[in-house]
DNA sequence: ACGCTCACG
DNA sequence: GACGTACGTGAGCGTA
């Protein structure tokens, strides 16, 4: 057994990461039956190991073997070049928890399992391969990674296990055009976009090999670069010589990795049933356990057949909610213990406590963490000392708290570590709070967004609702801690003995929800929706919100004054007409004046017993009376003043001079965003007076606002989904879509089109999107219901696809309880089977949702791609208004921005959905939003 | 707390 | 046969 590795020995080195990723991508997202733990990659990994063991017997069998893994995300290459592997996509989060299990699997198979902090697996492989060669033995590297090809030769070979193809010196030459000893030179020139090795711009493997073969090696080439005939190539090599040398250092493997084991430790060992069987059984791999048990001649252990829990049924939490598992972290040593536990796990649930709900002005008060259900901590940072009878509290800090900066310094590397998943409930909030203190949290998972992807339309997605529904636990309410109304306090005034259980429980709940939702995402088939439309939007929106938009206070203030004066004038006229003063803003008083005192006919009372005085009612009365018109004018000014010119001023952040809205990702069931505090998605535009409010939304000096909006996106999507050839053709031809509809419906040639006929067609087009009804159209067009119904019948006759779409959609909703967008987003329609008027609402919502929702998905996709697309431009994305994106860009770069952003927006459906219509984007620019739109 | 009204897509 | 209806939002105000 204890012979020294040497001649006649044969070492196999298995590239563990390659096995893992192959296994992950080759298999569907399997989960462990008993608890939903994702184990697809582990299963594939074990099968690959098993096949490896089976096939490597006989005369050429290895005498030594090890599986080599990467460890840690930071290696010496990052110290050389901080952009190394910076383009790497984050590891899929259902793979992350499986990584430690693949180590365990290797050990269970009784195969040596090696890794070293700060080094890549490739370096360990290089070191061992060279040791084996030096000792006079052979080595086979089981991998197809081209970075390892520099090691081939003199007894070192590679084996592509999938293709079962050996790669020797000639194989390397085939791939690189040079033999192994010059591979690094070629790689240094060609660079590598996957690992983000820069190389020489414009030079690929072919050209690189050509140059190296001509000049012998890289140093000679760089030295004699001046001799190169092609001017461009010559320039590139001379100008980028340093970058090329850096690239070579990055791709050159370290053959002297310090290892705390020797080749002899890797000697092949017999499979050990006592080691392997328990592991396979724990993973609940029934088939594999049985097969290997047969081969080893042992009895397979029993695997309990735990029934899977019903997909959406709330289940009693296995671990009770118990405050004894919650602790306070007061010292660096205690915090370090938590950080160590987090690194062991690879994920952590995080929650922040702050002094308020507005992330732009709130201060971080404390942080809670949870790595295992029932065990959580709270790190209080700036809680104030509590003095019993002191109503005003104290400015002194409470005892037993770490200094804020010390805690943040310790937490920052973990929160920013790409290998640690940070789980939150509404992570946009916490990410913005952390961003305030210079911490950029990534990668993240968000239980609120998971719930939204799975259950949009069924219920809201706040933590209290989710905890009640999915954990059967009502969280500690915040109200008693903070109080309410005038005497309400901020969280930093909450005594620590109350703050710890409250805050720790939030992290605990978040972790439990995540554990519960993770496997549910796959089962409900909305993983792609979550991964592409929800999760990546968080950092994008956080950035937009933090950027904000400049709003000119003076402009608003002047408008407010002007509105006040006009309103006062109108009030005088109104009081004159009525004969006395009253509250013009009170619909109740107004209704009584109009319909009782003045005796105007046709007053209708609603269900609350008050007369309806809405704009449509007053509009009708205005033909006969003067008062309603004055009221309408007054109301318009009142609305503009109170909701916009006054309120917006209150929202200007004193530090930034800008207005920072907050987008709600889960607010609208269709997938649209909602904007609040303030709502910047309903800034006036339809009337001239209102539109002028947009003049107060301005670009900074030296910059321009650029607005891009999708033209008729919902009608285009309708044309595609309902497959209306005439509509699709009209969009292809760039026709006026409403005029075309009018022409079709009313048999009017396009050249004879009148504005009124077109207006009617436009109303019908929109009506269709909303789930048209004769009543609704009649009211909108102010025509008799029978006439409206006639229009609809005619529309269906001319475009029969519409009726089919509506009927099919309703039937789908009834059968499944939800409808879907083209990108797979589900919108639940729980009332679709209801009786009475509810049913009508639900049916129309079901018809509208796939159209509105698909448009929402499209712009979400554009927004997710936008930061990369405009990264090189001096531009920032500021706002989203459903079909419009607003940017601020340095003067001079407007054209470049419009080109880049338009490309992203127009191509946003690709490659997942191939639309039969093009998406067209209109652009505008100017010093303020009124001009830009 | 709730309904009415009205701003937007 | 009558009922009551365009889809999706958020904010301010009056009224209870």
Automatic annotation (TrEMBL):
Keywords assigned by UniProt, alphabetized: DNA damage, DNA repair, DNA replication, DNA-binding, DNA-directed DNA polymerase, Exonuclease, Hydrolase, Nuclease, Nucleotidyltransferase, Transferase
Q: Which InterPro entries match?
A: 3'-5'_exonuclease_dom (IPR002562), 5-3_exonucl_a-hlix_arch_N (IPR020046), 5-3_exonuclease (IPR002421), 5-3_exonuclease_C_sf (IPR036279), DNA-dir_DNA_pol_A_CS (IPR019760), DNA-dir_DNA_pol_A_palm_dom (IPR001098), DNA/RNA_pol_sf (IPR043502), DNA_polI_H3TH (IPR020045)
Q: Which Gene3D superfamilies match?
A: 3.30.70.370, 5' to 3' exonuclease, C-terminal subdomain (1.10.150.20), 5'-nuclease (3.40.50.1010), Ribonuclease H-like superfamily/Ribonuclease H (3.30.420.10), Taq DNA Polymerase, Chain T, domain 4 (1.20.1060.10)
Q: Does the keyword Ligase apply?
A: no
The 3'-5' exonuclease domain covers 326-522
Q: What is catalysed by this protein?
A: DNA(n) + a 2'-deoxyribonucleoside 5'-triphosphate = DNA(n+1) + diphosphate
Enzyme Commission code(s) on record: 2.7.7.7
> A GO molecular function for this record?
DNA-directed DNA polymerase activity
In this protein, which residues make up the domain named 5'-3' exonuclease? 9-269
Limits of the DNA-directed DNA polymerase family A palm domain? 690-893
Q: In which family does this protein belong, per the annotation?
A: Belongs to the DNA polymerase type-A family.
Q: Function, please?
A: In addition to polymerase activity, this DNA polymerase exhibits 3'-5' and 5'-3' exonuclease activity.
Question: Quaternary arrangement and interactors, per the entry?
Answer: Single-chain monomer with multiple functions.
Do you know which NCBIfam families this protein is assigned to? pola (TIGR00593), PRK05755.1 (NF004397)
Q: What is this protein called?
A: DNA polymerase I
- Lineage of this protein's species? Bacteria, Pseudomonadati, Pseudomonadota, Alphaproteobacteria, Rhodobacterales
């Amino acid at each position: 057994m204890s012979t020294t590795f040497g001649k006649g020995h044969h070492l196999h080195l298995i590239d563990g990461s390659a096995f893992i990723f192959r296994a992950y991508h080759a298999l569907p997202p399997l989960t462990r039956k008993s608890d939903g733990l994702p184990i697809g990659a582990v299963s594939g990994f074990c099968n690959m190991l098993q096949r490896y063991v089976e096939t490597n017997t006989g005369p050429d069998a290895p005498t030594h073997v090890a599986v080599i893994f990467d460890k840690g995300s930071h290696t010496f290459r990052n110290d050389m070049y901080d952009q190394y592997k910076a383009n790497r996509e984050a590891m899929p989060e259902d793979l992350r928890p499986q990584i430690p299990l693949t180590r365990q699997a290797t050990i269970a198979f009784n195969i040596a399992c090696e890794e070293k902090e700060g080094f890549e697996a490739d370096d360990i492989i290089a070191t061992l391969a060279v040791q084996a060669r030096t000792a006079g033995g052979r080595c086979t590297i089981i991998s197809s990674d081209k970075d390892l090809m520099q090691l081939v030769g003199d007894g070192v070979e590679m084996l592509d296990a999938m293709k079962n193809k050996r790669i020797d010196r000639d194989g390397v030459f085939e791939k690189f055009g040079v033999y192994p000893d010059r591979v690094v030179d070629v790689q240094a020139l060609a660079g590598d976009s996957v690992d983000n090795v820069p190389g020489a711009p414009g030079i690929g493997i072919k050209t690189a090999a050509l140059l190296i073969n001509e000049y012998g090696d890289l140093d000679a080439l760089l030295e004699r670069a001046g001799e190169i005939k092609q001017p461009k190539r010559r320039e590139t090599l001379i100008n980028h010589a340093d970058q090329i040398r850096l690239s070579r250092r990055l791709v050159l493997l370290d053959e002297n990795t310090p290892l705390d084991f020797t080749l002899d430790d890797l000697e092949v060992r017999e499979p050990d049933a006592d080691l392997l069987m328990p592991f396979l059984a724990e993973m609940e791999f029934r088939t594999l356990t049985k097969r290997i048990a047969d081969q080893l001649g042992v009895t397979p252990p029993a695997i309990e057949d735990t029934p899977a829990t019903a997909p959406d049924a709330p289940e009693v939490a296995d671990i009770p909610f118990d405050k004894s598992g919650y602790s306070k972290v007061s010292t660096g040593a205690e915090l370090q213990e938590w950080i160590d536990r987090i690194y062991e796990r690879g994920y952590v649930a995080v929650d922040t406590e702050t002094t308020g709900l507005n992330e732009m002005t709130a201060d971080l008060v404390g942080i809670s963490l949870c790595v295992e259900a029932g065990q959580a901590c709270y790190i209080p940072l700036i809680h104030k000392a509590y003095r019993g009878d002191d109503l005003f509290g104290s400015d002194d800090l409470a005892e037993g708290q770490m200094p804020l900066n010390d805690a943040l310094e310790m937490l920052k590397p973990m929160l920013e570590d790409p290998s640690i998943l940070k789980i939150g409930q509404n992570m946009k909030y916490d990410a913005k709070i952390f961003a305030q203190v210079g911490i950029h949290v990534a990668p993240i998972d968000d239980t609120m967004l998971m719930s939204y992807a799975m259950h949009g339309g069924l219920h809201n997605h706040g933590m209290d609702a989710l905890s009640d529904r999915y954990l059967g636990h009502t969280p500690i309410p915040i109200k008693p801690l903070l109080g309410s109304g005038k005497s309400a306090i901020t969280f930093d005034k909450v005594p620590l003995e109350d703050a710890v259980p409250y805050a720790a429980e939030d992290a605990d709940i978040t972790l439990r929800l995540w554990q519960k939702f993770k496997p549910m995402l796959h089962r409900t088939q909305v993983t792609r929706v979550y991964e592409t439309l929800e999760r990546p939007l968080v950092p994008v929106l956080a950035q937009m919100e933090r950027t904000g938009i400049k709003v000119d206070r003076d402009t608003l203030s002047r408008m407010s004054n002007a509105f006040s004066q006009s309103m006062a004038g109108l009030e005088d006229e109104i009081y004159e007409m009525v004969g006395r003063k009253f509250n013009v803003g009170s619909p109740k008083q107004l209704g009584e004046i109009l319909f009782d005192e003045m005796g105007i006919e046709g007053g209708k009372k609603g269900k609350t017993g008050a007369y309806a005085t809405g704009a449509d009612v007053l509009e009708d009365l205005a033909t006969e009376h003067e008062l309603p018109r004055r009221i309408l004018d007054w109301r318009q000014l009142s609305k503009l003043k109170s909701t916009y010119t006054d309120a917006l001023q209150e929202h200007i952040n004193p530090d930034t001079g800008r207005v920072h809205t907050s987008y709600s990702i889960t607010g609208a069931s269709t997938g649209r965003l909602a904007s609040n505090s303030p709502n910047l998605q309903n800034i006036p535009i339809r009337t001239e007076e209102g539109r002028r409010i947009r003049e107060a939304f301005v670009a900074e000096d030296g910059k321009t606002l650029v607005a891009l909006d999708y033209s008729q996106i919902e009608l285009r999507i309708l044309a595609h989904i309902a497959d209306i050839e005439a509509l699709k053709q009209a969009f292809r031809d760039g026709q006026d879509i409403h005029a075309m509809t009018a022409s079709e419906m009313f048999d009017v040639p396009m050249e004879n089109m009148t504005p009124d006929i077109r207006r009617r067609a436009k109303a019908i087009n929109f009506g269709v999107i909303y789930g048209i009804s004769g009543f609704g159209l009649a009211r909108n067009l102010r025509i008799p219901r029978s006439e409206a119904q006639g229009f609809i019948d005619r529309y269906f006759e001319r475009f029969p696809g519409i009726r089919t779409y509506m009927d099919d959609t309703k039937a789908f909703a009834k059968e499944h309880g939800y409808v879907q967008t083209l990108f797979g987003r589900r919108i639940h329609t729980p009332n679709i089977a209801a009786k009475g008027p509810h049913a009508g609402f639900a049916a129309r919502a079901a018809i509208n949702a796939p159209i509105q929702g698909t448009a929402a998905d499209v712009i979400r996709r554009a927004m997710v791609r936008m930061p990369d697309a405009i990264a090189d431009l001096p531009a920032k994305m500021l706002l989203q208004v459903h079909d419009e994106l607003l940017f601020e860009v340095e003067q001079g770069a407007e054209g470049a921005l419009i080109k880049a952003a338009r490309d992203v927006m127009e191509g946003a459906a690709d490659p997942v959905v191939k639309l039969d219509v093009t998406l067209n984007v209109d652009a505008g620019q100017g010093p303020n939003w009124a001009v830009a739109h």
